[in-house]
Amino acid sequence: MRSGTFQKQLSGELAFSAFIPKNLPIEIKFDSKLNDLLSKADLALGRLDGIAETLPEVDYFIFMYARKEATLSSQIEGTQATFSELLKAESNLSDLESNNDVDEIINYINSMNYGIKRLNEFPLSLPLIKEIHKELLVGVRGEHKNPGEFRKSQNWVGGSSINTATYIPPPVYDMMQSLNNLEKFMHEKSPLPVLIKTALIHSQFESIHPFLDGNGRVGRLLITFYLIHREVLKKPLLYLSEYFKKHKQLYYDNLNNIRYKDDIESWIKFFLEGVKETSDNAVKSIRSILELKKNDKEIISKNFVRQDNALKLFNHLFTSPYISVKTVEKVCRIKNPSAIKLVQKFVDIGILVEQTGKKRNKRFVFERYMKLF
Fold it and tell me: Which of 32, 60, 139, 313 has the fewest beta carbons closer than 10 A?
């Protein structure tokens, strides 16, 4: 098989077969559909990257989009917290005293930001991947599973034991060989198009499964990191977890079919379809944000003689769409009566919606903006 081989480990009742990935690059069978998808994905990603260069509002999108990605990537692994719960927690407006699932998502955001910052000063490498993994698991579920360290024991995916597993990654020695090859592949010059290399890097990392926990999340982060490393993206604009979650079974099936059926091309086609769909949706969202901002600014200018505090609050809503009166006091540096009046005016002109229905401790949301995500 091009992708790798299953090799028997141990003997007797303890015997199992682990998958040993072949070194990258591997032969890809190009056909007309794959070439067409590659062309469309390249064009869509190019349009998205072009928008990043010209619009200052793209930073609002990145801020929110990164949080949505963190939520969805964590949900793929079983985390239950929602996008809105994350945003409320970040604004200190959560209904819960503590939420371990939200903490996991916040760690994902921290890992993402850490990785992007480190890429400015450090190459995409195995040490950096370990650093990102440590950020991901610090202080949350999985913190006792050697954060920042490659595994030193055999692991498996699915099933309650290695004998009932749906997939068994390579043993430690072979794992390290495969990781070293993956690092080399990320940096070597290759005739393979960047998006196809990215698809192979993700699938190979998932096959290697080098950590005791957090492999899926780190593997999905690698997609964005590699595209930034290769300067295909100037800003972190492409996140595929929404697409992967929407087609979760197909996502897993395509990865497994590489190992069990040597079907690499179906995975690459699935990946390229995701790049195109996600890029197109991101461009639409950015344009919708621009339109919303323009229209609501006009509403503010018609309804406020003095606009300073109104614009301060309005701009704040794009990175923190859930607010309370106390939030407005801090953001605008105004006293409680003025904050109440300002928030009520935003409700009256249709920018904010009150969520609780209570007379005290009210919470408001920039609802039309949230619907864009």
Answer: 32
The residues facing 209 across adjacent strands are none
Q: Which tokens sit at 359?
A: 């007379």
Residue 136 in contact with residue 111, Cβ under 8 Å?
Answer: yes
| Sequence spans of domains, the chain | 4-284, 304-370
Q: Which residues are within 8 A (CB) of 323 and not within 5 positions of it... i.e. 6 or more apart?
A: 91, 93, 313, 316, 317, 331, 343, 352, 363, 364, 365
According to the model, what pLDDT value does residue 98 have?
60
Alpha helices in 55-99 (DSSP H): 58-76, 83-90
Q: What kind of fold does domain 4-284 have according to CATH? A: Fic-like fold (1.10.3290)
d(CA 111, CA 115): 6
Distance CA(301)–CA(307), nearest Å, equals: 7
Q: Report if pTM > 0.90.
A: yes
Q: How many CB atoms lie within 10 A of CB 152?
A: 9
Instruction: For residue 162, give the DSSP letter.
Output: G
172, 212 Cβ separation under 8 angstroms: no
Handedness of CA 119, 127, 106, 194 (dihedral sign): positive
Please enumerate in sequence order all residues whose Cβ is within 8 A of that of 303, keeping only pairs 6 or more positions apart, or say none.
345, 349
CATH code at 304-370 = 1.10.10.10
Residue 276 DSSP symbol: H
